[in-house]
Structures are given as structure tokens and as C-alpha cells.
Amino acid sequence: MRKYLFGTGIITAITGGITLLRGLREDSPFTWRTALAWLSWGISLTLAIGAIVDVRRASRGETVDPDSPVSGQEQKLLKARIRRNR
Predict the structure, then answer these.
(1) pLDDT tens for the chain, residues 1 to 86
(2) Cβ atoms of residues 56 and 7 within 8 Å
(3) pTM of the model
(4) Which residues have a Cβ under 8 Å from the Cβ of 74 and sit 6 or more positions away?
(5) Maximum CA pair distance of the chain?
């Protein structure tokens, strides 16, 4: 579980969210640029979580969507997981 939570995608998304929250504390108005920044953060967080789900599925030997970065590596990840659990 640790390798998923401390992945670079999640850390980057959390850091970006913290930065956006700090920007809300200041007395700056909520503009369309702020809305786009929050939308971008949401998309980044969703993609990071999706990558974690794909890696987890692939390491269990399940198939993943063809557009996933780990597509085609399911058997390799499953073998690595079996080796770790011995």
C-alpha cells in the first residue's frame, strides 16, 4: 500500500491541492483562472488514482484497459508480486 500512497502522481496532486488551498486563504477573488486551476487539479488527481488502480489490477493478473501505461505488463507485474510474497 505504501508504494501506491507515496507515488509521485499522488504527491504532486496533494502538493498542488495544498497550493490551491493557500491561494483561497488570501483575499483574492475567485476568477475563471482559479476555476480552471481547480479543474486541472481534479483531473490530475483522477489520473493519479486511475494509474494506481491500473497498477494494482495488473499486479493481480487482471487485464487493464489498452490505454493504460501498464497495459501488456500484467504477467510481469504478477510474477514480481508472487516473488515478493514468498
Answers:
(1) 566 666 778 888 889 999 898 888 877 788 899 899 999 999 999 988 888 887 777 777 777 767 776 766 666 776 777 777 77
(2) no
(3) 0.72
(4) 58, 61, 62, 63, 64
(5) 56
Residue 64's CB: how many other CB atoms inside 10 A? 19
Residue 11: name the closest of 37, 40, 49, 59 by CA. 49
Domain ranges of the chain: 2-85
| Alpha carbon distance 76, 60 (integer Å) | 10
